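One record is set out below.
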Amino acid sequence: MPKALWIAHVEVTDADAYARYAEGAGPAIAKHGGKFIARGARYVTLEGSERARHVVAVFPSLEAGETCYHSAEYQAALDHARGASVRDLMIVELLDDAEL
């Protein structure tokens, strides 16, 4: 089963509330096998909407990433991000032979 990338593009509008989201989201992501590979690092926007923060985590599978998103732990954390950010989030399955 191929791994998957959880990719978020975020504009934080309330730093304190978003920090509470991050406190809960990290452990929830790890619990479901996710591992951050990029978070708040340098970036260049070449096309599309500009967002100030970008996060990429790798999961064992697309299903693991989706299960994480719908988990009680992640949803509790996400309650802090709602109204505190503008976000785009997707999970993208890697090619079978992609190495990461």
The chain has one domain: 4-93. The domain at 4-93 is CATH 3.30.70.100 (Alpha-Beta Plaits).
